[in-house]
Design goal:
single chain, eight-stranded mixed beta sheet, 34% strand
């Protein structure tokens, strides 16, 4: 196979071979997502030793996207909505039987969320349901065998629940009107809440309780209170005192690995340029040594059995698909299970290279560059690929979209602009009230940096993204059209005021956070208008490709359609793809492939890259 071979879109954006594996609590069985005979993603399960996995769910629509084992391992649980409306129901299926899945939350217009599953209390699961009030999710213990519900806690403005090892709701995070947050704890479900850890608006985004240790006295949490970065703390719920278990001076702790029985913290995840595991428990050092020796790439521990004898792990590289293995602890040996996209074998993929630059105001900004696998590194057409959120970040590793762009001959530029997470609260909070402002400046400055290095042809740059990234693409087209040859925007807010006013009721405290961090439609409408692409639609003169799911509850189709109407009035060349059976993002393979075919043709037309004929 030559280095110039186009990787088929169907390989990159069709269904994976297998993905998202999960180990059963007993450690014998494995479940994963895989396409069934109709090409719909469903849960498959069986023993991992022989990998004889059979389908156990039978969804015929958008497919199953997420699932989990029940605490006793007798059932597989999954949530599913209707065509992307995000009113998810919780279903249970017996992986050893052939009967249909059972809807455990058969309530119209209600959203079910899995809050906690614990093998130490296997007969129940803890879920959130907005049954009483669509804007609030009360906590219920649910018996997956019968569907019986027991109210565990009433939502009093809480944004997160924390359960102990018996699935009692003993912790909660309450978000206040001023943007601050408080961690509340109680002795049992009959006791009154007491506040133990309060943070201001600048620290609220990083406050994340992880779980109680087995005795129930100590609680693990992530918090940036008293630090720029989020640290792992152990909170004594009797005294209110905290102990720092791990901190990094430059990057947030983003994940915690705890013992499946004791709940004790044993390792943490810190995303620097790569995804780094820092071991806290020295007894685990040989396990991670064995995992790093087993395969290249960054290691993620996806699951552990109840006895902690088997670990399910993922090795993630930048220039190949993810690989999954089981570690037999104590032996140093791993068993390879599968790769999520074996069809990529033989194709030459690109490395993902970290880079950084100084923004125009001196702030250090980080990101990633992915060059075409052949064809040099100078004067390339470039695609500025803007992540969504925006309170998330791009990270190192394989991503189909990045490899697709590089394979078609583009330099893919990913930027963790201010407002992105992972780099400490000062960096994240620097994005407050900067949508369309300094956040956008960081994107421009990143492209100019690559131009100055000689990598990018300044006359052949596209801006591309979905959700917040789609908004940034529209801002680029409207406010700085001279910087870009064309733009691609998916699920993109065009008016910040109408976007914020229409967020789903299920978002609860998130709606107040948007008003604080972006702007208030009630009191700052003119400010929001000045940062909205719709207000500058008359200035758009570059071609646009706009994609939208008709059932998107987060960024409603009106956001796209009001901008498309303006483009039509002004005679701006554009394409508009509206998918009637999609929500926030394109899940059905036929829709996903239709979008990427249109995007590939659009980019080739305006930037001159390669295109796979349909």
């Amino acid at each position: 196979m030559t280095a110039h071979t186009l990787i088929p879109r169907a390989v990159l954006f069709g269904n994976p071979d297998r993905m998202s594996p999960a180990l059963s609590p007993c450690g014998r069985y494995l479940a994963c997502l895989a396409p069934d005979s109709r090409g719909v993603l469903n849960v498959h399960a069986g023993t991992w030793q022989d990998m004889d996995l059979r389908p156990v769910t039978a969804d015929t629509g958008r497919g199953v996207r997420a699932f989990a084992w029940s605490g006793d391992g007798h059932r597989l649980l999954y949530v599913q909505d209707r065509d992307g409306d995000e009113n998810t129901h919780l279903y249970a299926v017996d992986p050893t039987a052939t009967g249909p899945a059972r809807d455990l939350t058969p309530y119209d217009g209600v959203q079910a969320r899995i809050v906690a599953i614990d093998p130490r209390f296997p007969g129940r699961i803890l879920i959130g349901l907005n049954l009483r009030d669509r804007s609030r999710h009360d906590a219920y213990r649910l018996d997956p065998a019968t569907g019986a519900l027991e109210l565990a806690a009433t939502d009093e403005g809480f944004s997160r629940w924390v359960a102990d090892g018996r699935l009692r709701v003993r912790g909660a995070v309450r978000t206040e009107a001023d943007g601050s947050s408080a961690l509340l704890v109680r002795e049992d479900e009959d006791a009154a809440w007491k506040e133990l850890h309060r943070v201001g608006p600048e620290d609220a985004p990083s406050l994340r309780p992880f779980g109680f240790t087995s005795g129930g006295r100590h609680l693990l949490l992530l918090s940036s209170l008293g630090s720029d970065t989020a640290r792992l703390l152990r909170l004594d719920t009797a005294t209110g005192s905290t102990e720092v278990l791990y901190e990094d001076p430059h990057h947030d702790v983003e994940g915690v690995g705890a013992h499946p029985v004791t709940g004790r913290a044993q390792f943490v995840l810190v995303r620097r340029e790569r995804n780094d595991i820092e071991v806290l428990d020295p007894s685990l050092a040989p396990d991670f040594d064995a995992l790093r020796a087993a395969a290249p790439g960054d290691v993620s521990v996806l699951g552990r059995d109840r006895a902690d004898r088997h670990w399910l792990v993922q090795h993630n590289t930048d220039d190949g698909p993810a690989g999954y293995r089981v570690l037999r602890r104590g032996t140093g040996r791993t068993v390879h299970l599968f790769s999520h996209l074996p069809a990529l074998d033989g194709h030459r993929l690109s490395h993902v290279e970290p880079f950084s630059f100084r923004a125009r105001d001196g702030l250090r900004v980080h990101g990633y560059l992915t060059f075409p696998p052949t064809g040099g590194r100078r004067h390339l057409p470039a695609v500025l690929c803007v992540h969504g959120g925006p309170w998330t970040r791009d990270q190192w590793g394989f991503r189909a979209e990045t490899q697709w762009l590089a394979n078609r001959g583009y330099l893919c530029v990913q930027v963790n602009f201010r407002g992105s997470t992972g780099y400490g609260k000062r960096f994240t909070n620097a994005g407050d009230r900067e949508w369309g402002g300094r956040m956008q400046d960081d994107l421009q400055d990143a492209v100019r940096h690559t131009v100055a290095l000689g990598h990018t042809d300044p006359d052949r740059v596209a801006v591309y993204g979905g959700s917040y990234g789609g908004y940034a693409a529209l801002v680029g087209a409207a406010f700085t059209p001279d910087d870009y040859r064309c733009a691609v925007a998916v699920a993109a807010p065009s008016s910040l005021a109408t976007f914020i006013e229409s967020v789903p009721r299920t978002w609860g405290p998130m709606a107040a956070m948007l008003r604080r961090r972006v702007g208030s439609p009630e009191s700052e409408r003119e400010f929001l208008r000045s940062r909205s692409p719709l207000s500058a639609a008359d200035r758009i003169r570059i071609p646009l490709l706009i994609g939208q799911g008709a059932r998107d509850p987060r960024v409603r189709s009106a956001e796209s359609e009001q901008l498309v109407s303006a483009l039509r009035r002004n005679g701006v060349p554009h394409e508009y793809l509206l998918f009637p059976d999609e929500g926030h993002g394109f899940v059905r393979p036929r829709n996903r492939l239709a979008f990427y075919a249109a995007a590939e043709r659009f980019l080739a037309q305006h930037l001159g890259g390669r295109y796979e004929e349909a």
